[in-house]
Amino acid sequence: MTGQPTTGPDIPGLKRPLGRLRLGVNIDHVATVRNARGGDVPDPVRAAVLAEAAGADGITAHLREDRRHIRDRDIEALLAQISVPLNFEMAATDEMQAIALRHTPHAVCIVPEKREERTTEGGLEVAQDENRLAHFIAPLRDAGCRVSIFIAADRRQIEAAHRIGAPVIELHTGAYCDAHAEGRTEDRERELARLRDMARFAHELGLEVHAGHGLTYDTVRPVAAFPEVMELNIGHYLIGEAIFSGLDSAIRRMRAEMDAARRAAFGEGAA
């Protein structure tokens, strides 16, 4: 965890960002394209290596129970070939816990998972499953994995994540991004305010705050400007943009948008 925050005039307890805003690149949907036809191309591990060269601070990969995109051998290859941290997204199941404990990636992110969903639809329900989740994450923490919980920007869920001993939360930004895409300005501002308030609240509890889901060039700056947020995880949009501009270009532009937001909010050098 970071040191104690300084006191500022605008944000209670916090004057400047807690550290360089990290970018985690999710390479799941390179595997989606590969699996659509079968075979080995395009290779998500190659995408991860390119993402690292373009400035990604970490790689995120979600090994789903149905293996619809990332496969077990992809996780093994990622750990062997990248030098930045791997963030292993996983459901809270015995199978996934065993895989995580076998590989001990730098980080694990516990996410909800439904077989019929196209993508992760919401945050994990922690408050109603505290006892099980507390016991589930304990071995992962003991093994040295940084454990994060993917949750909605909701005070009740944040408090529950804190109680079970998760050191990190990742706030689901999907509702904010959906409202922006659909032109619902009032909803967009309301969701953004909720994210801002809950990032602040989580930080006050001593949690490290990450955010992600659905972020684009058009929506990333307001979230990147939250001083409590230390990491953004972005995948589907970057892979989509890479079709037109290349992965290197897409990642470098996203990195530039994040850094520009930090500088605009906190001055030169803040990024």
What is the CATH superfamily? Aldolase class I
Helical proportion? Answer: 40-55%
Ends distance: 19 Å
Shape: globular
User: How many H/I helical runs?
Assistant: 11
Whole-number tally of structural domains: 1
Q: In total, how many beta strands? A: 8
What's the CATH topology label?
Answer: TIM Barrel
Multimeric state: single chain
Q: Give the low-confidence spans.
A: 1-10
How many strands, which pairing sense, and closed or not: the largest β-sheet?
Answer: 8 strands, parallel, barrel
Counting helices, strands and paired strands, the structural category is: alpha/beta
Strand content: 15-25%
SSE order? EHHEHEHEHEHEHHEHEHH
CATH architecture: Alpha-Beta Barrel
- Rounded mean pLDDT is 92
Q: Which strand order do you get reading across the main beta sheet? A: 1-2-3-4-5-6-7-8
Fold and architecture overview:
The chain is of the alpha/beta class and 271 residues long. It has a single domain (22-264), classed as TIM Barrel (Alpha-Beta Barrel). It contains 11 helices and 8 strands. An 8-stranded parallel beta barrel has the order 1-2-3-4-5-6-7-8, surrounded by 7 helices. Helix 2 (44-54) runs parallel beside helix 3 (72-81), helix 2 crosses helix 11 and helix 10 (236-245) packs across helix 11 (247-266).
Structure keywords:
271 residues, eight-stranded parallel beta barrel, alpha/beta, 8 strands, TIM Barrel, 46% helix, disordered N terminus
Concise overview:
The chain has 271 residues and is an alpha/beta fold. It has helices at 28-37, 44-54, 72-81, 94-103, 130-142, 155-163, 174-181, 185-204, 220-224, 236-245, 247-266; strands spanning 22-26, 58-62, 86-90, 107-110, 146-151, 168-172, 208-212, 229-234. The chain contains eleven helices and eight strands.
